Amino acid sequence: MRTRALIRMAIILSLAAPATEALAANADDFQAALAKAEAANKQAGAIKNQWTTTAGTLKAAQAAAAAGKFDDAVKLANDAEALANASIAQAKEQETAWTQAVVR
Hints:
mainly alpha; elongated
């Protein structure tokens, strides 16, 4: 149940990101968004809870940037960051939640 809530939160955050972008994105904007997304994904990897969707979204962002579609690339990088942050939140929540399932 909590995982669904985390996924919904990631989707909502990714949909809200384009609303904050008033101007067209450029390569520098993409590099900044990509760096944040990769840092969050690296943190998720460090706690061994990387979602496979995050890696796919990062690849799509890089492909969009390579094609010169920086608005799409920034949006996808922001989506990847939201997914990575949601996976981190899931891992933290599950650290203690498993005790609820243990029969005592």
